Amino acid sequence: MEQSRIIQVTESIFSENERVAKVLRQKFADSGVLVLNLVSSPGSGKTTILERTGTDLKSELNMGVIEGDQQTSNDADRIARTGVAAVQINTMAGCHLDAPMVEKALESFDLDKLDILFIENVGNLVCPAEFDLGEDFRVLALSVTEGEDKPIKYPVMFMSAQVILVNKIDLVPILGFKMDECTGYLKRVNSQATLFELSARSGEGMEHWYQWLRQAVQTKKVGKK
Amino acid sequence: MHETGVMMEIVHLAEKHAKKNGATKVIRLVLQIGQLSAVIPEAAKMCYPFVINGTMLEQCKLAIEVVPALGVCKQCDTKYNVVEQEFKCPNCSSDQHEIISGRELKIKELIAM
Q: What is the ipTM of this complex?
């Protein structure tokens, strides 16, 4: 009779994604390109933030965008209309982007010519948290329409972000949104994140975000081999 | 469903390690799923029978250990469940904490023959 034995498995379930993410991180470092993984719920304004950022900064920075959605090229088309190069990934039934998908999309870019690569993830506050895309920063967009307590309801995603953009602040008076309450919840789950309050539609607060971007681009270039 | 993809990866990994150890079938699979991970144990159990069909795990019993989301308060060193306490220390109300467990999503061990 065959003996049964206990086998310990130390390999991570995400080991394949981690392997590819490591390769990507090295590629990005070699090219000195700043890479941002933009995450949020569907409808928080990620694409509008990128459209506005692209339009306002394209004269000073070379940007590229990888768009992730289940279906359509609508978001990549919107970005392309601002004059910024964009490539669309359609995940079909997939609920998040992973490193192998990003690796494939990179074939459309010359990384050495880019200052910033934005990766706009599938709108989803759960699954993208687990998938490293080789990015320098995870940027989470939170719309004021989502309610003050969103951070405490989706702690894992909020914990994983280094930059948080509180968007649609032009709607605060209409909603009666309590910003202090929201930033309180944000600090509870992530005391280290850099916070920006802005409106991609009205332009309010965008300049502080741009200042941060310019600084981050410089820092990444200084670290380039 | 999201859990199906993850469970397929887990079964794949289990088969790989069983084969590496010269086994032909897996009879028990023990997973650790943290309270802060992106997988719901109930959903994982639901899709499990479909995912193991035709694999080395066809007769494999699944056991899931749920790992609590524990944090340590940076102000007073109290250990507490951050999900239950909504990231606020029950002792001193500080929100400064360090997560020490709860993010796990892994195969703890498998029994193969």
A: 0.80
